[in-house]
Amino acid sequence: MTENRSIELQDHFGARLQTNVNMACYTTARVGGAVRWFAASPSASQLAADARFLWDHKIPFRVLGNGSNVLISDRGWDGLMLYNQAKAITVDRDSSHPTLKAESGAALSTVIRTTMEEGLSGFEWVAGIPGTIGGAVYGNAGAHGLDIEQILSLAEILHREKGQLLLTAAQMGYQYRSSDLKRDSGRAVILTASFGLSLSTPDLVKKKVEEFNVKRRNSQPAGASMGSTFKNPQGDFAGRLIEAAGLKGLKIGGVEISPVHANFLVNDGSASAEDYHQLISFVQKTVKDKFSVELELEIELLGEWQD
Asked: Choosing from 104, 228, 258, 272, which is the catalytic residue?
């Protein structure tokens, strides 16, 4: 079966197809084992064609952007990682409702640079978030009391059963750090997203971005991590609970609960994915025992894990 699938994949992907690719190089935590197959999609149209092919041939796959919200097992994963390199960005600032449209693989940092150059306001709060447009739309990324739901106009998605769709923010089923797409993972791929912004000036947008960057540098640690590990429980903060449980600075293997912000688990350069998994489990158990609060992961786990 694996040999037949490899032939099918080679026929479709050609030179784009790679095998047994280690994922530590493609995730912000710098950990993770090898995936059986790996291929990059260079455009939204190619991403759609690749997803259709994989669904039609019943080959398990995941779309990977910047790798900032996923923890891949050291044992790897027996599927195909579709590396989203669809990065085109277009801007319409001449109308009364200026918009930015980006393919889902576009880095948030590139989008912010574009809005600064064009003098468009609305994306400044995203400064410093290590992700892509697709990941941000998928997980309703947010910071500083703002989130993607508030600026998304339309998301162009390819659904496994329903085909190509255009969804408004209201149709995305957004909740805190979640969406219908995330809750039913694997049934749709985000191709592009359009955002409603407001006219400003390059200098004013740049000033706001710098202010948010300063806030992020002062409150979040440097180093390899997945960003925020746990969702904030309603009416509270995951970092506060972890710190109150006495866990700030705790280390398992090569992973430490950051002394700067307890919701960040930082790789000292020697960590494994299992170190992360064990520390995550310990944090969840400790916080539940002490405060009767179940911390829900903001990140996603992929692959097999030790009990």
From this structure: 228
What is the structure's pLDDT at 287?
98
78-90 confidence digits (pLDDT tens): 999 999 999 999 9
Instruction: Answer yes or no: 228 catalytic.
Output: yes
User: What does the pLDDT read at residue 217?
Assistant: 87
Q: Looking at the domain 2-84, which fold is it?
A: 3.30.43
Write out the two tokens for 286: 């400790």
Q: Which fold has domain 89-219?
A: 3.30.465
Query: Which candidate in 103, 177, 179, 258 is catalytic?
Result: 177
| Architecture of the 238-302 domain | Alpha-Beta Complex (3.90)
What pLDDT is recorded for position 96? 78
**The predicted structure's pLDDT at residue 4:** 79
Active site residue 270: no
Domain ranges of the chain: 2-84, 89-219, 238-302
Residue 298 annotated among the catalytic residues of the structure: yes
Q: Which residues of the chain have pLDDT under 50?
A: 1
